[in-house]
Amino acid sequence: MRKPYEKPTIFKLHTGMMNKFGSFAYPLSRRVRTEIDSIPIKELVEKYGTPLFVFSEKTLRRKFREIKQAFTTRYPNVEFTWSYKTNYLDAICAILHDEGETAEVVSEFEYEKARRLGVPGNQIIFNGPYKPKSILKTAIKEGAKINIDTFEEITDIEEVAAELGIKPQVGIRLNMDTGIHPQWSRFGFNLESGQAFDAVKRITYGGQLELCGLHCHIGTFILEPKAYETEVKKMVEFAYRIEDEFGLKIEYIDVGGGFPSKNRLKGVYLPPEVAVPSIEEIADRICSALLSSLRPGDFPKLIIESGRAIVDEAGYLITQVHATKRLPDGRKGYILDAGVNILFTAFWYHFNIEIDRNVTGPSEPCILYGPLCMNIDVVDDLAYLPPLPRGTNLILSPVGAYNVTQWMQFIRYRPNVVLIGENGEVDLIREAETLEDIVNREHLPERLKLKED
Ligand SMILES: *Cc1c(COP(=O)(O)O)cnc(C)c1O
């Protein structure tokens, strides 16, 4: 067969050093991946098609246990709670609940999903700025831990409590300056301005709720462990101030999540191995700050809401090269079958890109486009790859966090998701969508139906 003609281009080769695109020209062998947890990519693709999300149970459990160990060896009273919005596939949540995590939810949908999975209400932490009264009522009845976000929510909960004739325990969410910018001041009550203290006053004077917890979540993908130390010190200081002033007991200090995964953030040129602090370092800052600021003998529960750092590296996306084109600026463009519709985090990261076979030819700068008929559909504009024939599978990682929740049914159907179990079982944990899934909630008025003539 004759090869199609391709206009030659000249580019400089860089090997073993940083190229001008901020990535390394690895020897080819480092970039080939033929399996995930010993299951051949070929087998996965033949059975489930592409694009395909693949989760590793082994990695998921290992990442959770690393975090658990980092904290429980440093502080005696820790609760780990799974951030549903990071990845709320049943199978993923079930594994983490099996590891002992409670559920952290931020909407009625997530609350109901956790309950449906069998998580009791008293094992649920309910956060977020928007909690409709109907679900607040259910959550209060079922004993969930609610962290209040607004003054209106205080009133809502008081009304529900009065209706139910109970005095529920509640927490409040704080926001504060921890040196992280932009500051997430839109959630909860600001500490420095006195707003948080006003919220405490409002709750105690209301007399219908029992304040027993403080919550804060300073941001996401935090690369500065010191920010957590500042957060914890401010929370403990505030806890004692209100305990002393109002005779309350703060039973939990919930420091949120936001720990980074080993992903390469756009604009951060150091490789993740250098830029991302270890979980030990983060845990050390948090627990040392706690132990040095708590009063003797006082060990309130420390709550950790880590999402991304646990699940991101457990997820891969297999996507196939559909077509190739040479762009006017000389770069090569690839059209893949997965785009930003299912890979929301492509807006923030340069993923690791591995290919499923050895190919010959020099690597060159290229752009990876998704399948959407939209200019924004770019998976990576700084890839550096050898010439890939049509049908080559690319394995992108880490993609386990914030993709299978933030993906959109936009233009294409959402694909299969599989889980590789610890003993090499492969289970379909979410089936690819079909036309039926999408249209079965639509209603076409009778008068608009196409008539056959
Ligand atoms: C999203 C979220 C988390 C989890 O954040 P990660 O960055 O995934 O660790 C934890 N707590 C709250 C309140 C959140 O909104």
Automatic annotation (TrEMBL):
Keywords linked to the UniProt accession: Pyridoxal phosphate
Cited InterPro entries: Ala_racemase/Decarboxylase_C, De-COase2_CS, De-COase2_N, Orn/DAP/Arg_de-COase, PLP-binding_barrel
Gene Ontology process terms (BP): lysine biosynthetic process via diaminopimelate
Cofactor: pyridoxal 5'-phosphate
Modified residues (N6-(pyridoxal phosphate)lysine): K85
The name this protein goes by in its record: Diaminopimelate decarboxylase
Domain Orn/DAP/Arg decarboxylase 2 N-terminal: 59-311
Positions of the catalytic residues: C373
Example of a GO MF term: diaminopimelate decarboxylase activity
